[in-house]
Amino acid sequence: MISSQEFTGARVQALAITVGLFTFVSVGVAACLALVVGVFYFVVSFVLLVLQAVVEVFGSVGATWVNADPLLKVLILAAIAYGGYRLSRKQKGGVNA
């Protein structure tokens, strides 16, 4: 016949395993959540940095355009047109892209 004392040891062991497994899973979930939050923070920081750089570039281009000589304005427009032409040739897959 099986005594109740044998069941008590098995219950304690099962409880210890359950608590250990629950702790392991909880720490793993917390680590995954921390990783997701960290990646989100870095992505948002990078996007804000890129937007700030774009604003700085356009601000400096605007200041250059306002204070530029007419000849420099023509050169800037010619460089933009040539860059657009090269970009369109590259996208079409031209031989001389």
Helix-strand layout with pairing:
Blueprint lengths: L3 H64 L2 H23 L5
Description:
- With 97 residues, the chain is mainly α.
- It has one domain (4-92).
- The protein has two helices and no strands.
- The protein has helices at 4-67, 70-92.
In short:
By secondary structure, the chain is mainly alpha-helical. The chain has helices spanning 4-67, 70-92.
**How many beta-strand elements?**
0
Task: Report the C-alpha radius of gyration, rounded.
Answer: 33 Å
Integer average pLDDT: 88
N-to-C span: 89 Å
| Number of individual domains | 1
Series of secondary-structure elements, N-terminal to C-terminal: HH
- The percent range for strand residues is under 5%
Characteristics:
mainly alpha; 0% strand; elongated; 97 residues
